[in-house]
Amino acid sequence: MLAGKGFKHVYNVSGGIKAWHAKTAIGPQDLGMTLFSGKESPLDVLTVAYSLEQGLQEFYVTMEQEAKNAAVKDLFAKLSEIEVKHQMSIYTAYCDISDTQLSKEAFEKTVEVKALEGGLSTREYLELFNPDLTSETDVISLAMSIEAQALDLYQRVSFKIENQASREIINKIANEEKVHLASLAKLMDSL
After folding, report:
1. Is pTM beyond 0.85 here?
2. 37 by DSSP, 3-state: which?
3. CB burial string 87-112: b at 16+ within 10 A, e below
4. Pick from 157, 161, 163, 159: which is nearest to 177 by CA?
5. What is the DSSP code string of 108-128?
6. pLDDT tens per residue, the chain (191 residues)?
7. d(CA 65, CA 35)
């Protein structure tokens, strides 16, 4: 992966992943890849990315409604708001490059939510991570896991996408996922 990103010398230090004893990415290497054929136009990439954000935002709204703890409810509401902002960023990028201007409502009608960010469904995330939905740290850990899976998916997709402009959009979205992860880490540190 590093060599593909232009690094000329890659070293395996102290055993690499074999020496790692913390959590790692889950699922098969092609997890979520079926969402992208590799031939997407920039507009197609933005539509799929929007659908992933929308799926995660709806997940957070559902979890907010189900949560019993007030602090956890507030946390899910905050996470939902973050996803709405990311959706707006993607919609704005879509409008910037589209020849036809669609209202947000019309654009959302073209979006089909198949999975959350990272390529899994709500049920799959809950079964894999089995979080304690009364614990703020478990909720943030779940959100961080989802964002990390999304970052991983977007980075893998960037190698598959043939159109250079589409690849650049995927890489920009991946970088935004890094910012989301950093924000969640600060939130975790504040607890």
Report:
1. no
2. coil
3. bebbbebbeeeeeeeeeeeebeeebe
4. 157
5. HHT----S-TTS--HHHHHHH
6. 676 778 887 776 666 667 766 555 566 676 677 777 888 899 988 998 898 888 888 888 988 888 888 888 888 898 899 889 989 999 999 999 999 889 999 998 888 766 666 666 777 777 877 888 888 888 888 888 888 888 888 888 888 888 898 889 989 988 988 888 888 888 888 87
7. 28
Question: Which residue in 54, 51, 48, 78 sits closest to 139, CA to CA?
Answer: 78
21, two tokens? 């004893």
Instruction: Report how many helices (DSSP H) and strands (DSSP E) the chain contains, helices first.
Output: 6, 0
For residue 19, give Cα distances in angstroms to 22, 26, 75.
Answer: 9, 17, 34
Q: Give 47's contacts (C-beta < 8 A, 6+ positions apart).
A: 94, 110, 111
The two three-digit tokens of residue 49, written as one number: 């990315």
Domains and CATH numbers, the chain: 39-190 (1.20.1260.10)
Percentages helix, strand, coil for the chain (3-state, rounded to 5) are: 70, 0, 30
C-alpha neighbours within 13 Å on the C-beta side of residue 55? 23
- Residues 145, 16, 19, 189, CA torsion sign: negative
